[in-house]
Write a structure and sequence with these properties.
Blueprint (H helix, E strand, L loop, with lengths): L8 H17 L6 E5 L5 E6 L2 H4 L6 H9 L9 E4 L5 H10 L3 E4 L9 H6 L3 E4 L3 H13 L1 H7 L3
Parallel strand pairs: 3-4, 4-5
Antiparallel strand pairs: 1-2, 1-3
Helix pairs in contact: 1-6, 6-7
Amino acid sequence: MTDAVTADPAAMLAVAVGEARAGRAEGGIPIGAALFGPDGDVLGRGRNRRVQDGDPSAHGETSAFRAAGRLRGYRRTTMVTTLSPCWYCSGLVRQFGIGHVVIGEARTFRGGHEWLAEHGVRVTLLDDPECVALMEEFIAARPELWFEDIGE
């Protein structure tokens, strides 16, 4: 991909937030993600597409990871996500050795980011008000879909 942003976490988060907004506009779950290279290049972007595709594995992080395509190594990449990654997506980060995760918020859902940090992944938690609002509004409007998404 040819998009590039600075290595500023807030600028990188803006890419993921754009994906979350697009997912919400499509009637899906507003969680977005993007995978960045060491120079700040956007390698892949995606959003939770469980509803749109009828695919329970189409989380934001997995969609961004798939969009990035194959790389020789992932240690110097950064996964940026609007919401703390669930165990499934945390496992993806560990499996492929992604070195840094930037998280928009962990108030509405606390995933595996502490576990990632315990295993050597650099974690930056931004506590972004827009990310919190996106999820709070969605959970209030569609609680049944939210609980399906988190497996409850």
